[in-house]
Amino acid sequence: MLFIIITLIIIVLIIFLTILLLPGMAFFNKMSDQKYNADEKDLLTGILTTAISSKEATGEVMTTFVNESRKTMPAKIYLPNKDNIEQIESGAQVLIIESKAGIAYVIPYQQTIY
Question: Which UniProt keywords apply (predicted)?
Fold first, then answer.
């Protein structure tokens, strides 16, 4: 008898969670989420966390989106590059030219103020 009562309580809890609680949580998330508003510069720049020692070597770049979330990804030097860049040191700010198969192809970047 006790087993049947416990089973019924569990079933009632599952029904409560699926019918009442989950739609309420979805509504709360929809109302509380902030709109994503990023500057294009923030999406295309990053900082090397691991140096790129040659044109064939792979480093790591970290990007920051809207000063809140960070993403790291493998990075290689973009080829061809007009300055014939051979290596990029760790901590350097870089411009992400393109991303293929999860690898960011980068060149050094110096921000200018107008």
Answer: Membrane, Transmembrane, Transmembrane helix
Global pTM reads 0.59
Strands 45-50 and 59-65: antiparallel
Residue 46 and residue 101: Cα distance in Å, rounded?
18
Number of domains in the chain: 2
DSSP alpha helix (H) spans, 1-114:
2-16, 22-32, 40-44
Tokens 């020692």 sit at which residue?
53
The contacts of residue 27 (CB under 8 Å, 6+ apart) are none
Which residue range forms the structural domain that includes residue 5?
A: 1-33
How far is the C-alpha of 7 from the C-alpha of 48, rounded, in Å? 55
Q: List, for residues 11-33, the tens digit of each pLDDT value.
A: 998 888 788 777 877 788 777 76
Quote the CA–CA distance of 105 and 65 in Å, as a whole number: 18
- 30/28 Cα distance (integer angstroms): 5
